[in-house]
Amino acid sequence: GVAYALRQAAPDEPLTVRVHSPGGSPFEASAMRAQLESHKGPVTVVVDGLAASAAAHFLATQGARVEMTEGAFVMIHNTSTGAGGEADDLEREAKMLRAVDAQTADMFARRTGKTPAQVAALMNATTWLSARAAVENGFADAVVPARAEVLQRFSPRAWDGAPRQALDKWTGEIIPCQSKPMALDKEIRQRLSLSENATDA
Predict the structure, then answer these.
(1) 81-95 pLDDT, tens per residue?
(2) Rounded to whole angstroms, what are the CA distances from 43 to 14, 33, 53, 137, 185?
(3) What pTM does this model have?
């Protein structure tokens, strides 16, 4: 994990964190981001394919340079969870989700220079940003060429639910997600010139 990698590195050693993830727990993501921020050396975060949901938190690492490879995407949205119980239980769960969303909006506002309300609107729309759109909106610092070995290991399965426009506007504007999920495996493979047998090892 991140803590183990940091223990292996010299205190002032430059670190590069490569991200390709559909997300996970926002609490785990916050803990990993805090560990990176405690590193005294320069930190570079590189999005190789996808930084979605909690994985997008890496882009908000304070003091880090954030790079997007050509063809990479970022997705931000409101926090979700599964819950059961009585009305009071669900209301407490909803209160917790709103608190996490507010904290996430503040975090991205510090990174992008947008207001928390502007970021909250993007999260509420489940927004996908191309590499260039991520830079233009302050989520990243630069677009860099993708490494060949990364493309050969690219997993399109994490893209279910992405808007079809995302494939047609690699350098386009912010694109809200469509309500109907779409499996993009075949189209992504074609656009990245991957063979049908390429897998996500």
Answers:
(1) 888 899 999 999 999
(2) 6, 11, 21, 21, 32
(3) 0.72
